[in-house]
Each structure stands twice: as structure tokens, then as C-alpha cells.
Amino acid sequence: MDPLGIDGAWCYTPRVHTDPRGMFWEAFRAAELHDAVGHGLDLAQVNCSVSARGVLRGVHFADVPPGQAKYVTCVSGAILDVVVDVRTGSPTFGRWEAVRLDAVSRRGLYIAEGLGHAFLALSDQATVTYLCSRPYTPEREHGIHPLDPEVGIDWPLDVEPVLSDKDAKAPSLEEARAAGLLPAYQTCVDFYRELRGRPRQG
Predict the structure, then answer these.
(1) What percent of the chain clears pLDDT 70, i.e. is strictly above it?
(2) How is residue 105 annotated by DSSP?
(3) Alpha helix locations (H) across the chain?
(4) Which residues are catalytic?
């Protein structure tokens, strides 16, 4: 697990074994995640999305606590996966980092509670899976506009992005902050500390 420049975001690159039959890799290793992050991922829900090229999903985040941590992989095709620090008071507030997830590297991205998440489908079709620490709860879910110029994500767009109605109507980062929708960094840090104090499973 390699840390990104935003606290709470980690990238995992598996060893991919190939032979004449095909290939095999360990897409998720709980022990490695625990050693890196300091706690496990309580698996509450597994999501799968299929997106056409140019589909842009996010930036999504949930209230903390309990928030929703995610472990994201792209099982077919390719995406640009983006983490945005939307935690007010964070030293990297408003910063974003991007990682290409695809069916070649087989990398996975862990995104802690309180961080924003978005991705752009780069291939004609991309299938993405998310392991989630909490089930989807609409009243706790929020978003900011993925094309917000204040955030300035460098999307490699050579086609018109396709957004859901909800994402297209999402507020800017500043509007979300003014409305009190963003999680506080200290609240998130306290929650991470609480998670680290729980007994290790497995």
C-alpha cells in the first residue's frame, strides 16, 4: 500500500501472475490495508458500475461519522480515479490526486471516510467495483461539482463529459462549505483514531 499525498488515500498495486491459462491476482488484501491504515475495512456493501467512455461520476462523500470508506478497482477498461480532500481544516483541503485504475495494472485505491471520490471512464466501457465500509444512505450523501474550477481537476476530456442530473446540479466546493455540507478534518481524524482502537478482525 503506497500513500498518496492526501492523508487517508492509499494505492495498492498487486502482483499479477500470468500463464497460458490466463491471469490471477489478489485484488484486495485485508492485512496489508490494516498494516498501512491502522484498521480494517468493515465490508458493508459491494457496488459495481459500468460506464461508457466520457462518463464522469462524483465528486461524492458522506457525513462523518460514520462516513463511507471505499476500496475501488477497475475490473475492465480504464478510469481516472480522483480523490479530493473536502475536509475543512485539512492541510490539503481542496487538493486532489488522480490515479489511473485499469485492467492492466489492476491497482486498487483506498479512500478514507470524509474524502471526496470521483472518476472518469477513459475506455469505451469501464467496469468499476467498490468495497464500501457502510451501506449507501441517501440523507448522509453529498457531492460537489466535478468540474468546479476552484478544485480544478485536470480531467483528460476529449469528449463532452456525461454527468448524472444530481452531479450536474451539485454545488461548488465553496458553496458546499458555506452550506455546512463538508466534513471537518478534526472530526475525521478523531474517527480514524477510534477505528484504529478497535480490536483487529481475522
Answers:
(1) 99
(2) T
(3) 30-37, 165-168, 173-178, 185-196
(4) 60, 130
